[in-house]
Structures are given as structure tokens and as C-alpha cells.
Amino acid sequence: MKHIVIIGGGITGLATAYYLQRATRGSLKVTLIESSQRLGGKIATAREGGFIVEGGPDSFLARKTATLDLCRALGLGDQLQPARSGKHSTFVWSGRRLHALPMGVGPMLKSELISWPGKLRMGAEMVIPARRASGDESVGSFMRRRFGNEMLTKLAGPLMGGIYAADPERLSLESTFPFLPAMEKKYGSVLRGWMKQRGRSGKGERSMFMTLRGGLLQLTEALATAIGPEAILRGARVAAVLPYRGRYEVILESGTSIDADDVVFATPAHVTAGLVAYIDAELAERLRAIRYVSTATVSLGFREQDLPRAEGLNGFGFVVPRTENRRINACTWSSTKFEGRAPTGHVLLRVFVGGAGAEAFAERPDEAMVALAREEVDAATGIGAEPVLARVYRWEKGNPQYEVGHRARVAEIESLAAAHRGLYLAGAAFHGAGIPDCIENAQAVVRQLAGKHGMYRQPAAGSAVAAGAH
Ligand SMILES: Cc1cc2nc3c(=O)[nH]c(=O)nc-3n(C[C@H](O)[C@H](O)[C@H](O)COP(=O)(O)OP(=O)(O)OC[C@H]3O[C@@H](n4cnc5c(N)ncnc54)[C@H](O)[C@@H]3O)c2cc1C
After folding, report:
1. Residue 104 confidence (pLDDT)
2. Which residue, by CA, sits nearest to atom 53 of ligand 1?
3. 63-115: per-residue pLDDT in tens?
4. Which helix (H) or strand (E) segment is 47 a member of?
5. Which of 407, 396, 409, 402 is CA-nearest to residue 434?
6. Lowest mean pLDDT across 41-50, 193-202, 415-424
7. In testing the pocket of ligand 1, which one of 217, 252, 267 has its CB within 8 Å of the most ligand atoms?
8. Atom 4 of ligand 1 has which residue's CA nearest to it?
9. What are the residue boundaries of the structural domains of the chain, listed by start?
10. Largest CA distance in the chain
């Protein structure tokens, strides 16, 4: 029986194993190898004293339906939970106060976040000619060119760069927000395009973000159960993968080796680089060139009675422009964003530390990082009380940076990988770092594998990826 080994038990590896088993209906042997005893990778939920703490992702985009479909297929449909909507706002911490994010023309005109010259410059976007040149550019370059520098530093930088823990001046526009250059091209202006599209889609409010009631761990636990313990090797770190007579030998750090016909690398690109170095040194080098930055999250639980009545406390949280020279990037009001995250009479906050240009803050010892987060939260909101819960999660070299030219770099990597029969790359480094992107990437790899082993059947529109997948 052919043997397929998947390295890495994050969402990408788990989804690959799950879809592969369903596509091939037991006709292939599938083994998932994870270095840690814990599955899920960046998805890490802790339940403590009535709090539900997310160390990594806390939600996923509903617009990309892959995660919703997977949750439903795993029987988690009734656990899906939208972010609260309504009057809750996001804030920008600028000039020593929190400004509500201006949503729409009226609020923007009234907002004190952007100066009048800055507002006029933003409005001028409607008449600024579209770029003639094709090819990628940075998010920073695009936003400055279209909307001006103030909009970039105070809004686009912290919001768009923040999602990727990236420097907007290096972040690839075509790999992260491709709809923006597309709108510029189609309508000549992002604002004009946005108004046209808004008119068409109506104003119906639908939550952009979804999660699971018990935390995202529910998804990885359900995947692990569906895959089955016999197909999962935990606490086994892969040290190298060697080509051997048209197959592969997967060498574990323990010294054991496992033979495989196909290997799916669902590890971060810098890890994959080390593992494939004996197969293809150039491929390894290209993978290593995908830069990663370190980040951390600090979750803080407070008693409601200890909170001041400050502006912004009933919002979803705030982002911090780099020009403010603070030590944190953002703070999410987790218990406002999602119901049930804190026990009655308590609130839960999550502070984001590190990322491009600020990695040193994410490398501090736990105690220092909690102190830093508390000081910054106090300065922004006036919450000086002792937290009843403080939990640090570190993501050392955990966030891939989609820098300008990323798409072309990935195409080169994939063409090098394609020269090796049975070698597949997947994960957050390539076609999107969000959970739905990782799941879609897993589905694409399963399509290739099922095709190779003669088990691919054209799926009906909107259905799963390969023959037999639910
Ligand atoms: C702080 C933070 C917040 C985020 N927020 C969101 C969000 O709200 N929404 C969203 O959609 N996305 C979010 N993301 C992004 C998303 O969580 C990740 O991109 C995604 O979970 C990555 O999944 P993966 O399976 O590709 O990689 P990983 O989760 O990194 O999994 C890789 C796995 O490989 C294992 N491994 C490593 N080396 C070896 C080895 N040698 N042998 C065997 N196993 C090995 C690791 O232990 C790990 O389990 C966030 C990321 C971070 C860091």
C-alpha cells in the first residue's frame, strides 16, 4: 500500500490528512507527524477559570468559506459563533487617545484622527489617475500613492500591516489585498469602486469573522478525532527527508526512519528548508528566503468592577500606528468581540506584541512582557488594576512575511518542488496565511495527490475536493 507522510500537525497538515483519508477511502496509508505532543500548531486555545484564551488565531474570515465548510463537515456547525456586530467599534490609539475608526464619509469628516489636509488628500483618491505600470508594489506604496501619507500611517499601516505583523513598506499588495489594485484598474479609483460595489451588495450586515464557541481548538481536536490516533505520530520531530530509490526516507530526531511514497511538508518554510536540504539545496535556499518575524500575544483577564469607564472599552479593541512609538501593536477586547470568552463579571483583553521592526519586544521574558502589556493597556485605557489572569504565547519566527514579489517567489519554489516526484509543499508561507487559506491549500495538495494515485473525480461545484471527500 502506498504511504503518504504529512509533516506538521498545524491546521494545514491536519486538513491535508483529513481530506486525503476521505479522498482515498483507506486505499492509501496516511501518517501525520507532529513534533509537539499538542496538535494545532498556531491554533492554541486554553480554557482557564472560565476564560477562553486564544494564543494564536481567534477567528477566521467567513467570506472564504473553506473553514465554515470544514467545521460543518466535522459536525461543529452548531458551535460556529459570529463576532458580535452592531455598535461596537475598533479604535486607533493616536495622540494619547483612542479614536473610533471612522466608518464612512460622515464619521471620517467628523473624526479628529486625520487632519483636514489628510482628509482632503484621501478624498482626492477619486481623481488620482490609476497606475499604468503592472507588477507588484508594497501596501505602503499603494496606500500613499492613492490616499496620502497620513491615511497610510494612521489607518492602513496599523490595520493592514497588523494582520501580517508586517512592515507595510515591504508587504506585497498583490499577495495580501489583491482586490485593491483590481479596483484601481477596473474603476480608476478604489473609492469609486467601493461605492459601486457597496451599492450592488446592499448594506446587509453580516459578521466578517467567525469562531467556535469553545475556541478554535475545537476544530483541531475534531480533525484529530476524524483522522484517528493510529494515523498520527505526536512528539516526533522530523530531522531530514532523504530521497531513496524513487521514494523518501523520513528521518526522525529519535533516529527512527519511515519510508514514504509521497511527503507533504506542512511546516513553516524555514523548517521545510532544513528538511529538504538533502533533496534540493536550491529549493531549500528559496524556502529560507521567505522571511518570518516573531510575535507574541498577552491575554489579560480583569474584574469588570476594576475597570474605569473609559472611551473605547466597549469596542473591539484598538490598533497602534508605528509612528506613536509604543511597545504594542494592537489590543483586542476579546470578551466584547466574542460572547462567552470571560466568566460573568470579567473581561478578557489580548495584546499583540512584536512583528516587523518590533521583534525584540516579543523576545522578552514572560514577566517583563506581561508588565509591558499592562503598562501600555493602562496608558491607552486607564486600566491599572491587577489582572486575575495573564497568559503569554510566543510565536518565534511564527509569522511569514509576504514581501513584494512574493507570488513570483512562490511560483519559483513550486516549480523547483515539482521537479521532485512525490514532494508537496503546503502551509501559511505560500498562498495565504489565514486559516481558510491554509485549508484551501491543503485541499489543493489533496487534489494533486488523489489525481496522482488515480482517485480524483471532478467534484460537483461547491463541493469538496476529491473523490469521496464527504
Ligand atoms: C498570533 C497569531 C494570530 C493569528 N490570528 C489569525 C486569525 O485571527 N485568523 C486567521 O485566519 N489566521 C490567523 N493567524 C495565522 C494562522 O494562525 C496561521 O497562518 C496558521 O494557523 C498556520 O497553520 P500551518 O498549519 O500552516 O502552520 P503551523 O500552525 O505553524 O503548523 C506547523 C506545525 O509543524 C510542526 N513542526 C515544526 N517543525 C516540525 C518538524 N521538524 N517535525 C514535525 N513537525 C514539525 C509544528 O509543531 C506545528 O504544529 C494568526 C497567527 C498568529 C501567530
Report:
1. 82
2. 56
3. 999 999 999 999 999 999 999 876 668 999 999 899 999 888 889 999 999 99
4. strand 45-48
5. 402
6. 193-202
7. 267
8. 57
9. 3-41+218-290+403-452, 103-201, 292-400
10. 69
Rounded to the nearest whole angstrom, what is the distance from the C-alpha of residue 210 to the centroid of ligand 1? 18
Å from CA of 270 to ligand 1 middle: 13
Ligand 1: nearest atom to the Cα of 352 = 1
Bridging pattern class, strands 3-7 and 80-82? unpaired
Find the mean pLDDT for residues 148-162.
94
Q: What CATH number does the domain located at 103-201 have? A: 1.10.3110.10
Which ligand 1 atom sits nearest the alpha carbon of residue 400?
Answer: 19
Residue 121 — very low, low, confident or very high, per pLDDT cuts 50/70/90?
very high
Look up the CATH number of domain 292-400: 3.90.660.20
CA-to-CA distance for 100 and 60, rounded, in angstroms?
23
* pTM, rounded to two decimals: 0.94
Strand pairing partners for 403?
171
- CATH topology assigned to domain 3-41+218-290+403-452: FAD/NAD(P)-binding domain (3.50.50)
**CA 177 – CA 433 distance, rounded (Å):** 12
Q: Which helix (H) or strand (E) holds 46?
A: strand 45-48
pLDDT in tens, 253-311: 999 999 999 999 999 999 999 999 999 999 999 999 999 999 999 999 999 999 887 55
Closest atom, ligand 1, to C-alpha of 40: 49
**Residues in the ligand 1 pocket, defined by CB under 6 Å:** 7-13, 33-36, 41-43, 56-60, 237-238, 266-268, 271, 295, 297, 395, 398-399, 427-428, 433-435, 438
Provide the strand spans (E) within 153-195. Answer: none
Residue with the smallest CA separation from ligand 1 atom 50 is 57
